[in-house]
Structures are given as structure tokens and as C-alpha cells.
Amino acid sequence: MPRRFAPVIGFLVALGVPLLPGVPPFWITLLDYIGLYAIVAIGLVVLTGIGGMTSFGQAMFVGFGAYTTAILTTRYGLSPWLALPVAIIVTAVAALIIGAVTLNLSGHYLPVGTIAWNISFYYVAGNLDFFRRYDGISGILPLSMFGVSFLDSARLYYLILVVVALAMIATENLLDSRIGRAIRALNAGAVAAEAFGVDIFRVRIFVFVYAAVLAAISGFLYAHMQRAVNPSPFNIEASIEYLLMAVVGGASHVPGALLGAGIVTLIKNELQDVLPKLFGLEGNSEIIVFGVILVLMLQVAPEGLWPLVSAPFRRALAKQRFSGTAKLVAQKSEMLSRREPPPRGDKLLEAIGLRKRFGGLVAVNDVDLDIRSGEIVALIGPNGAGKTTLFNIITGVDRPSAGHVRFNAHDITSMPARLVARLGLARSFQHARLIPGMSVIDNVAIGSHLRADAGPFRALLRLDRQEEGRLKREALAELERVGLAGEAERPALSLALGRQRIVEIARALSSDPVLLLLDEPAAGLRHQEKAALAALLRKLSEEGVAILLVEHDIDFVMGLCERVIVMNFGSKLAEGTPAAIARDPAVIEAYLGLGA
Predict the structure, then answer these.
(1) For the stretch 161-189, what's the b/e string if a residue is b when 16 or more beta carbons lie within 10 angstroms of its beta carbon?
(2) How many Cβ atoms from other residues are within 10 Å of residue 308's Cβ?
(3) Three-state secondary structure along 376-389?
(4) Helices 58-75 and 25-44 meet at what angle, rounded to 10?
(5) What is the CATH number of the domain that holds 555?
(6) How far apart are the C-alpha atoms of 434 and 440, rounded to whole Å?
(7) Are residues 255 and 382 in the same domain?
(8) Which of 268, 302, 323 lies at the terminal end of a domain, its last residue?
(9) Where do runs of H (alpha helix) occur along 411-453?
(10) Can you give the residue range of the structural domain that contains 542?
(11) What are phi and psi of 382, to 5 degrees?
């Protein structure tokens, strides 16, 4: 059976559950709740599991959706289906405001901030007459469509099932897109993604709002299922449970959200019935046992249960991804546009008096340099000489304490990295910064982020396939250029370190740069690989691409570069042709050594 039919078959099986003989209505209602919880957990997969932003505030956004439709339908007589878009807009605006304030926090302050917002919402709803305080709002109309009422839990089950399926499909579409790669970079690849033009803060805000909107849709369905709302289901305990569902199922896997919602809900329900019968335990004792079970579960599966469930199908999944990539690449569509390289010999980069202080340490001290189109220049010196810091200043990762940088007739001195990338400057990093959980080809494709413009809405509806095909085709072309086309579908971090550096070069090339900054590109490469890299860099130089590289392999540098700049203790020690640098007494003493 083809792998792509498995979700369809699963959906058809789920459709038949209420029709099975002897299924009690209570179990259908329980499945309704699992579906509602799963919708929220899907948002948390994107927000927390993939985006790396831990939120304990999702119950608040469920409450926004529930209270909005409750107020509009009971107080103002609005149709529930007209109340739904209003609930989504209200929640999205609230999430936008809350996210703009809260997402500036980092580390443990972010989850603490979401806790504060959720607690505030709970007490505001419980103490204002507008929300009818803790008594809540009752008399909410059941949903109906084309004359069919969803008052019955079995009928509502079908509606919730369709919404869950749509949420999963839309989320998978989103993650398999240009924006999806940016989202995957948030957790452990933000610096690299921003170096290729990704606006990290805007992506974080979008993910925060997206997860909130899914929660609001769940809240809308909950309100019309219960036909009453009060603050109790939207407290901090509910937010913790939502997060727990995502983690138990597999925080970085969309199907894991449904699995986690089902497991957590069923275990809690069963414990409430079983414990009093077995041990005579009363009160909230099931919470204690529930906690112990979940801790043991996470000990067995620290990445959640979905990776264990899907393990037998991992090879089929990889084959499906490869097939999908091949189809995209094979599409007949226009190639990505390329920028016209400046005339060979034109000055591209000029740095004047650059200085960078870290407290009392001067890492870069009054350094001047210039790079011309088509030129290959090496930046060498001992460890700690300030070479990488100089790279970071030029590319916008760090701001200089003094001095100016001009690139391609633009002053980029205080320009953030994502804007510097727009001008045609690309880089690799001293320590390879490939994005975990992504394939080689997807890591390379993020380099072309600025060469496309498909946004999240096109991605959700899968209207970005032609553009995605162009991006993947460009990524594959660059992988062929560096000799790694055969590794395209492998997990990027499974490659040897030297090959990871080559993938970084392919990623940089996919941005169509006019200036390429390479930080120790030959580290970890064998002799033949270094020769292939040197040949590639010479070819790029002939095409008009300027290259500034930091490298400790002196033979590699001397045989490749037209000019060498030597740094020591943050200052420029010498500059000249490779032959002149090799004979310079100061350079020999500070770096090359007597055997040079």
C-alpha cells in the first residue's frame, strides 16, 4: 500500500467509529474532547516543538475563541459561523499584541511571561461582569449546517474530525514550505537563517499567532459543544495539559499532537475510574499517578511516542520525501532570477577603522580592508586574532564599537544581518550552523529565502508548489556544484563535519551572492576534497564572485588567494601577495613559524 494513502485510510476508519455497534455515547464525547485538545496541541507542535518557544498560555487563547463566540451569539444574536471569523481575528490581534511584548523575552522568562498572561486572563474573565464572572455565559446555540444540527455528540464528532484533519494538513503544508524552513530554523538555527534574510522576529510572531488561532478554533467548537463557558477550562492547569499532550505525542511531529491528546485524555479518564475501585483512593489522587505514568513514559521516549510508532515506516517516509522532492525539481517552471555581478575589479567591500570591544577586551582594533569583485582574499592569523569577529561585524551579526563598513555602495555599518544578505553578501560559519531536523537540500534551500516571496497563506493552501520547485531545483543545482547531490535527502547533521562545511558553502551559493565570506571552509576536508573546493572557488572568482576566507591551512591559502591579510591580537599585522606574506619576518614570528 503506498504510504500516501495511509492518512486517508486512517481518516476513513475514524469516520466509521460512531457507526460501530455498541459504542457508548460517552466514548464518542471523549473522542470529541480528544479532537478539541489535538487542535491546540498541533499549534504547540509548531510553536514549542519546532519553533522552540515554550508557551503555558494556550488555554487563554482557547478562552478567547470560546468567549468571543459566546458573547456574540448570546448577547448580539450573531450566527455562530459569522462569529467564527470574528473569534479568529480577535484572538489573532490579541496574540499579536501579547507576542510583540512577550517574545522579546528569552530563556525561562518567555514561558514565565505566558504563565502570567494566562493567569491574568483567568482572573479577568472571572471578575468582570462583561464575562459574567465565574458563573460564565450559558445558552449558547449548538452549531448547525444546511439544516443539520450538531447538538448530538456523534454528529459533532464528524465536524471536529474534519477540523482536526484540516489543521493537520494545513500545518504539514506550512512546514513543507519556504516559511516552514524559517520556522524550523527558530529553535537552533536562527543566526544562520537571519544571515540569509529570514526576519526571525516576524517568523516568531507569525508562529505565535498561528498557534493561538488554532487554539481559538478549538475554543469556538468547545463553546458550542458545551453550550456554556466559564473561566475554569482556561486556567493554567489546562495550558500545562495542552503542552504535556504535545510533548508526550512528540513535540516536533504533527501526528504526535493527536496521539498525545488521545493518550493523556484516556489515561486521565481511566485513572479517575480505576483508582477508587482498586485502592479506594479519593480526591485528586489520579493526578499523582498520572504524573508518575507520564514521567515513566517520557523516560522511555524522551522525544515523544510518535517517533516510536512511526519507526517501522521511517524508510518509507524518507522514500516519500525523496519522491516529493524529485517531482518538485522536475516541474517545468522558470528558474530563480539572478543578480548581475559587478564588473570585475570594482570595489565591493570597504571597512575603515573597525573596532569591537567586549567589555575591556578589544577583539578588533582599527582594522581597514577592501575587497574587489572577482578577488580571492585570505584572512589569516592565530586563534583569537579577531578574524571571526571581523566576519561578524561585516555581515551584521555584531555591531562595531567604532568604524564604518560599505558594501556595494551601501553603508551597512549598523545594518542587521537579514538586510545585509539582501545586498548579495553570504557567509559560512566557523562552527557549522546547519539546522537540525532538516535534510541537506532543505538546509541549502533556506539560502534562497530572499529569492522567493511565497508567504504563509499560500503555503497553508499549498499554492506555492511552483515556487517551491524552483527553490528545490536551485538547491539541488548548488549541491551538484559542490559534489553533494547524492546526499540531498540525508539529515544534514548526519554528515561528517567536513561535508557539513561544504553544505554551508552550497547554502551560501544558493543566495546568489556577489561576495562570499567563508570561515575555515577547508577544515576537516581530505586532500582531494580541498583540491575540489579550491577549483570551485577559482571558478566562482572567474564568474565575478568576490571571496574573503578565513583559513588555517597555509598551503591551501597560498595556492589559491591573490592577496593575504594577517591579523594578530585584533590588529592588522600585514597585507600583501602570498609570496610577500610568506617572507614577512613579523608574520613568520607571529604566525607562520620558522619552518614556513
Answers:
(1) bebbbebbebbbbbbbbbbbbbbbbbbeb
(2) 12
(3) EEEEECCCCCCHHH
(4) 120
(5) 3.40.50.300
(6) 9
(7) no
(8) 268
(9) 417-422, 440-445
(10) 347-592
(11) -65, 165
Alpha carbon 5 to its chain's center: 27
Alpha-carbon distances of 191 from 194, 197, 417, 419, rounded to whole Å: 5, 10, 9, 13
DSSP type of residue 339: P
C-alpha cell at 527: 586532500
Candidates 232, 195, 193; CA nearest to 51 is 193
Cell 577547508 sits on residue: 522
CB atoms within 10 A of CB 522: 23
This prediction has a pTM of 0.92
CB atoms within 10 A of CB 100: 12
CB atoms within 10 A of CB 484: 21
Strands (E), 172-282: 228-229
Residue type for 227, please? R
**Segment 80-104, tens digit of pLDDT:** 999 999 999 999 999 999 999 999 8
Q: Of 504, 548, 508, 540, nearest to 523 (Cα)?
A: 504
How far is it, in rounded angstroms, from Cα 271 to Cα 274?
A: 5
Establish if 21 belongs to a structural domain. Answer: no
**Each residue's pLDDT tens digit, 469-510:** 999 999 999 999 999 999 999 999 999 999 999 999 999 999
How far the first Cα of the chain sits from its last, in Å, is 64
CA 293, CA 303: separation in Å to the nearest integer? Answer: 16
